[in-house]
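Suppose you are handed a protein chain with no further information: no name, no annotation, nothing but its sequence. What can you learn? This example shows the usual starting point.
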Amino acid sequence: MRRREFIRLLGGAAVTWPLAAHAQQPERMRRIGVLMNTAADDPTGQTRLLAFAQALAQAGWTDGRNVRIDIRWGAGDPERIRKYAAELVALAPDVMDHR
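A reasonable first move is to predict its three-dimensional structure. Written in structure tokens, the prediction is:
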């Protein structure tokens, strides 16, 4: 292989490499913030959260695979709810839900 051919081959690889790397990028991880009005150990809150996660899964969204779900439990305490709402907003979720 001559030097000119080698340089042309190397240059072509350098041009196509970023395109191939970009094509192999994983799907962007979406983020959902959930603020529950109940305590973490409340059976009703757990049932609602489970139903929410199941509905997301049926739509193709799985926590840890293509979506991250950040959950905060307000336990009916207005001060805690304000604090957790601010935390969730600071995380810049794509969607927020209050249950």
